[in-house]
Each structure stands twice: as C-alpha cells, then as structure tokens.
Amino acid sequence: MALHLSWVFIFGILGNAVSFMVSLAPLPAFYQIYKKKTSEGFQSIPYVVSLFSAMLWIYYALLKKDAMFLITINTFCIFIQTFYIVTYFYYGPKKEKIVTVKLMLLFNVFGFGVVFLSTFFLPNHSIRLMILGYICMAFSLAVFLAPLAIVRKVIKTKSVEFMPFTLSVFLTLGAVMWFFYGLFLKDMNIAVPNILGFIFGILQMILYAVYRNHPKKTVEEFDPKLQLSDHPVVVDVAKLGSDAVETQGGNGRNGAFNKV
C-alpha cells in the first residue's frame, strides 16, 4: 500500500512539473502580442478550451477527494489561461473580442454550468462521480485529437515548421506521467485519455524525424487557414493542457493535458 501511494506521489509530481512547463509554452507568443500591441493573427479558442478543461478536472478532483495533484496543476492552469485570455482580449480587435466573449459564454459559463447542474444534485455520490468522470474523459479524448490538424499539415506541406519538436516531447512525457498517475490511482478516467495523447505524441516525433531535413516551402505555399498558434489544446489531462497545440492540455486536464 505504501509503495502504491509512493508511485502515485511520484507520477503526480512529475505530471505537475511537465504540465507546468507546457502551460508556460505560449508566453513567448504573448510577449510578442504585448510588444506589437495586437493579438491579431492569434486565436483565443485554445486558451478558452484549456480553461474549460481545467475547470472540469478540478470539479472532478474535488468530488473524488484523493486526486490532489489534479487540483494543484489545474488551479495553476486556470490562473495562466485566464491571464492568456485577458491579454488576448485586451489587445484583440473588436471582432475577435466578440468571438472570445461568445466562446467564454459557450464553454466556461453555459458548458460548465450544464455539467455542474446535471451532476452535482445527483443523490448517489458514486454515480455522480462516474458520470462526471466519463464527461472529463470524453472531453480529454476530444482534445487529444487536436494533433490530427498538425499531422495533416506536416504531411501535406512536408514541413515541420508548425510542429515544434520540444513541445511534442513534453506533451508526450506529460501523457506518460498522467497515464501512470491514473493507473496507480486506479482511475481510468485519468489514464485512458493519455494513451491517445502518448500515441499522437510519438506520431508527431516520428513525422518530425522524417520531415525535419525536408526543404522548406515559402510562406505563400502554405494555406494560412491551416496555421496553428503556439499554444497546445492539452489537457493534461490534468490539461488535459496542453496547451499545447500548441494548445494541446494533464489533464487534460491541461488538459486540455490541462492537464490530465
């Protein structure tokens, strides 16, 4: 039993550390926004989704009562994603501000409100936790599908310009840490989404190895609609964050690895 708890502690700490670094990945982009005094060219949806993911996982962890490491990383994610959204909103064009407000209302007000009201008042605690766990797991799985956009772009352009290798490595490491955290905690709602996160992380690194020395195309040859921001959609599973795609999540959780 003591060994079991020690592994939960170790992977919880490691998952928090990796997801923490992934959550900070967009800071250089936001420094550029600050310098240019405009967020034009960026999108707010990765940060809104990461905030929603963090809210879900904190709610789940509070009901579960033995997942403190989910609470710590997702509390930080709520803080940092809120900072990103406020900065984006402050420097964004009027049209983008309206879009951001609509996304916040859809995900963080209406979406979370529906989840909370549909589960909190259920009389049976175990059923409430089970339903909420399924919701968190489904959302984290959806967030981890975000790398498909990057994979498609890399294959189409034969360029890894829009797929930072370091970010892919950290997202993969985060998926591994949160998988084992969920496994030793005996919580498949945490572990299962990170299997997909790990698979996509490995796939991205393989593509990077294949195309990293391929001649770059000029900017005009890329479809600007396919370009992604620096920020992952992770949920670690904790972010499921990650921010990553860069917003990919730790849930997510981080997802999301906000971050599970």
UniProtKB/TrEMBL annotation:
Family per record: Belongs to the SWEET sugar transporter family.
Membrane-topology descriptor: Multi-pass membrane protein
Superkingdom of this protein's organism: Eukaryota
Residues forming coiled coils: none
Record's keyword terms, sorted: Cell membrane, Membrane, Repeat, Sugar transport, Transmembrane, Transmembrane helix, Transport
Protein name as annotated: Bidirectional sugar transporter SWEET
Biological role: Mediates both low-affinity uptake and efflux of sugar across the membrane.
Predominant location category: membrane
Transmembrane segments annotated in the record for this chain: 6-33, 45-62, 68-91, 103-123, 129-150, 162-184, 190-211
Subcellular location(s) per record: Cell membrane
Cellular component, GO annotation: plasma membrane
GO molecular function: sucrose transmembrane transporter activity; sugar transmembrane transporter activity
Keyword Repeat among record annotations: yes
Species, as recorded: Hibiscus trionum
